[in-house]
Specification:
The protein has a two-stranded parallel sheet with strand order 1-2. It has a two-stranded antiparallel sheet with strand order 3-4. The protein has a two-stranded parallel sheet with strand order 5-6. With 483 residues, it is mainly alpha-helical. It contains 19 helices and eight strands. The chain has two domains: 109 residues, Fumarase/aspartase (N-terminal domain) (Fumarase C, Chain B, domain 1, Orthogonal Bundle); 248 residues, Fumarase C, Chain A, domain 2 (Up-down Bundle). A hairpin with a 2-residue loop joins strand 3 and strand 4. The chain binds arginine. Arginine binds next to helix 6. The site of arginine has 11 residues, from helix 6.
Length: 483
C-alpha cells in the first residue's frame, strides 16, 4: 500500500461487519483483495475535494427537506471539522474502508454519531468520485495556467533584453538564416500560450457537475442538482446520469494538455542543453540551477533541463495508460476507473515540479551574444540574402539559387564566408552584383529586413513583443475564475 501526503494509516482489517457495505457478506474480505482493491493509499489526495462535495450535498439535502435542517447542520459541522483536521494531516485512514469516500463517511459517523449515516442519501460513490475528480482537475488546470504564465514572464523578460541579439536560426540543425534571439524565445511564448488555451479547455470540461447521477440512474429523492453545482461553483450539469459517472474525458483533456506542454518544455530543454554545451556555448546556466560531477571537477551539467526532457516520458505514458484503461469499458462505472488517479496525480506533481523550476532558471540564463554572432558570421546563413539580392534585381530566383550555391561551394573550399569573396569574384558569378552586395550580406541587416508580419525583423519583433505582453497581461481563461 502506497502512502502519500504523510497521513497516518491503520492497515488492520476491522472485520466484515465494520465494512460500510458489509451487510450482504458472510465472509471477511481476503487481505489480498484489500491490497488490490483499496485506493485510500493514493485517493486520500482527494480528501478536500471529497469533503467539499459532501458539504454541498448535505447542504442541499437539508435545503430540499430530504434530511432535516438540524441533521444537515450537524453533518456539515462534522465535515468542516474533518476538513480542518485534513488540512493539518491529522486524519487517520484505514485500508478496510477502501477509499477516501468511505474513510470520510466513517470518520464523520464517529464524530457526529448515526446522523452522519444520512450523508450518503441520494448519492453513490460513483457520482461522488466523479465529482471529486472534476474538482481536482479544475483546480489543477488553474494551477497549471498560472504557472505557465510565470514561465512566459521569464521568456518575455529575456526576449526584451535580446531583441537585437542575433544568432543562427536552424533548420535540420544546420545554420539556416540569422534571427533575433528574442524572436526565437518568443516562439516558446506562443507555444505556451496554446498550452494555456488547452488547459482552459480542460478546465471547462471539468467544470460540470456529475453529482446527483447516483450510481448511474439518478435518484428517487427530490434532489436539486443545480443547487449543489452552484454551491461548488461548477458551471454546468451532466445531462445524462450514465454519462456523468462514466466520463473521464475531462481527465484525458487535462492529461493531453499536460503531455503537449511537456513536449514543448522538452524541446525547450533540449535546445538549452545544446546551447549550453561546450560546442555551442550560446548560453551559461546559473550555478544554482546546474549540477556537478562526482568525478570530473570541471563539469557543470544541465541536469534540470535533462530532467524536464526526461519527465515528459512519464506524462505521455499516463495519458496513454488512461486511454487504454477506458477503451474497453462498458457503461457505466467499472472499478477499472479507479486507475484514473495515480497517473493524474503524478502528472500534476510533475507539472508542478517542472513549472516551478523553469521560470527562475530561464530568467537567470546568461546568453553569449558574441558567441552567437560569431556562429552567424562563420556560416553561410547569409546565402539566402545573396539569392534574394539577385532575385530583387530581376533574376529568376531559381537561377539565383544555383549561382549562389556555386559561390558557397567555392567559398567553402577556401574556408571563408561569402562576404570574404572579392567584388570581382562575386561579379564573375553575376554582373548584377554591385558594391552594395556587402551591405546585403551583413547579418544584422539580414535580420532587420525581415519585416513581414511575424518575421524576425527587429521592429517586427518589437511589435510581437508588445502583442505578447498584451496577451500575457490578460486573464488566461474566463472559466478560470472558479475552482
Ligand atoms: N475508489 C473508487 C474509485 O476511485 C470509488 C468509486 C467506487 N464505486 C464503486 N461502486 N465501487 O473509482
Amino acid at each position: 500500500m502506497k502512502e502519500r501526503d504523510g497521513h497516518p494509516m491503520n492497515h488492520a482489517d476491522n472485520g466484515s461487519n465494520a465494512r460500510l457495505w458489509g451487510g450482504r457478506f458472510a465472509e471477511e474480505t481476503d487481505a489480498r483483495v484489500h491490497a488490490l482493491n483499496a485506493s485510500i493509499g493514493f485517493d486520500q489526495k482527494l480528501v478536500l475535494e471529497d469533503i467539499d462535495g459532501s458539504i454541498a450535498h448535505a447542504t442541499m439535502l437539508g435545503e430540499v427537506g430530504i434530511i432535516s435542517p438540524e441533521e444537515a447542520k450537524a453533518i456539515v459541522a462534522g465535515l468542516k471539522s474533518l476538513r480542518a483536521d485534513a488540512e493539518r494531516g491529522a486524519l487517520t485512514y484505514q485500508t478496510a474502508d477502501e477509499d477516501i469516500h468511505m474513510n470520510i463517511e466513517r470518520l464523520l459517523i464517529e464524530r457526529v454519531g448515526p446522523v452522519g449515516g444520512k450523508l450518503h442519501t441520494a448519492r453513490s460513490r460513483n457520482d461522488q468520485v466523479a465529482l471529486d475528480m472534476h474538482l481536482f482537475v479544475r483546480r489543477a488546470a488553474n494551477a497549471a495556467m498560472e504557472q505557465i504564465r510565470a514561465l512566459q514572464a521569464a521568456l518575455l523578460k529575456q526576449a526584451e533584453a535580446h531583441v537585437e541579439t542575433i544568432l543562427p536560426g536552424y533548420t535540420h540543425l544546420k545554420r539556416a538564416q540569422p534571427v533575433s534571439l528574442a524572436h526565437h524565445l518568443l516562439a516558446y511564448f506562443w507555444m505556451l500560450e496554446r498550452d494555456v488555451r488547452r488547459f482552459c479547455a480542460a478546465h471547462a470540461a471539468a467544470d460540470v457537475s456529475p453529482l446527483g447521477a447516483g450510481a448511474l440512474a439518478g435518484t428517487t429523492f427530490p434532489i436539486d442538482r443545480r443547487r449543489t453545482a452552484e454551491l461548488l461553483g461548477l458551471a454546468g450539469l451532466y445531462e445524462n446520469s450514465i454519462d456523468a459517472v462514466s466520463d473521464r474525458d475531462f481527465v484525458l483533456d487535462f492529461m493531453f494538455a499536460a503531455a503537449t506542454l511537456m513536449m514543448h518544455l522538452s524541446r525547450l530543454a533540449e535546445e538549452f542543453i545544446m546551447w549550453s554545451s561546450d560546442e555551442f556555448g550560446f548560453v551559461e546556466l546559473p550555478d544554482a540551477f546546474a549540477t556537478g560531477s562526482s568525478i570530473m571537477p570541471q563539469k557543470k551539467n544541465p541536469d534540470v533541463f535533462e530532467l524536464v526532457r526526461g519527465k515528459s516520458g512519464r506524462v505521455f505514458g499516463h495519458l496513454l495508460a488512461l486511454l487504454t484503461v477506458l477503451k474497453g469499458l462498458p457503461l457505466a462505472y467499472n472499478k477499472d476507473m479507479q486507475e484514473d488517479k495515480e497517473g493524474l496525480f503524478d502528472t500534476v506533481e510533475t507539472l508542478d515540479l517542472v513549472l516551478g523550476v523553469l521560470p527562475p532558471l530561464i530568467e537567470r540564463l546568461t546568453f553569449r551574444p558574441e558567441v552567437m554572432r560569431r556562429a552567424v558570421e562563420q556560416s553561410f546563413a547569409n546565402a539566402t540574402e545573396l539569392a534574394d539580392y539577385l532575385a530583387a534585381r530581376g533574376m529568376p530566383f531559381r537561377e539565383a539559387h544555383a549561382i549562389v550555391g556555386r559561390l558557397v561551394r567555392e567559398a567553402q573550399a577556401r574556408g571563408v564566408p561569402l562576404q570574404a569573396l572579392s567584388l570581382q569574384e562575386l561579379r564573375a558569378a553575376s554582373p548584377l552584383i554591385a558594391e552594395d552586395v556587402y551591405t546585403a550580406l551583413d547579418p544584422v541587416r539580414a535580420v532587420a529586413r525581415r519585416t513581414s508580419f511575424g518575421g524576425t525583423g527587429f521592429d517586427e519583433v518589437r511589435r510581437q513583443l508588445a502583442a505578447a505582453r498584451t496577451v500575457h497581461g490578460s486573464r488566461p481563461c474566463r472559466a478560470g475564475q472558479t475552482g
